[in-house]
Amino acid sequence: MRWWGLLSLRCCIAVWFLILIGMVLSFPQRLFLGGYWGLAAVGFVLSWGSGSLNRWVSRELVSAAR
């Protein structure tokens, strides 16, 4: 994997979060994901999943460079 692969992954993760924030601002809280608890759950899952993916790709990139 080249250096731009990790950069493009991080940009994709940023777009996911921007889409989530845009959806929150566009729709009423009562209708979107079950209110604040649903939003917190989706945000947690998105953060955990994207963080895990970022760590895994970063480790693989370092091991591939050796």
Could you please describe the fold and organization of this structure?
Helix 1 packs antiparallel against helix 2 (36-65). The chain has helices at residues 3-26, 36-65. The two termini are 12 Å apart. The model has no long low-confidence stretch (mean pLDDT 80). With 66 residues, it is mostly helical.
Brief digest:
The protein is about 80% helix and about 0% strand.
Features:
elongated; 66 residues; mainly alpha; single chain
Helix and strand run? HH
What does the largest sheet look like?
none
Taken as a percent bin, the fraction of beta residues is under 5%
- Summed up, the domain count is 1
**Shape label:** elongated
**End-to-end distance, in Å?**
12 Å
The beta-strand count equals 0
Low-pLDDT windows of residues: none
**What helical percentage do the residues reach?**
over 70%
Mean pLDDT: 80
Q: Structural class of the secondary elements?
A: mainly alpha
Report the total helices.
2
Topology:
Blueprint: H1 3-26, H2 36-65
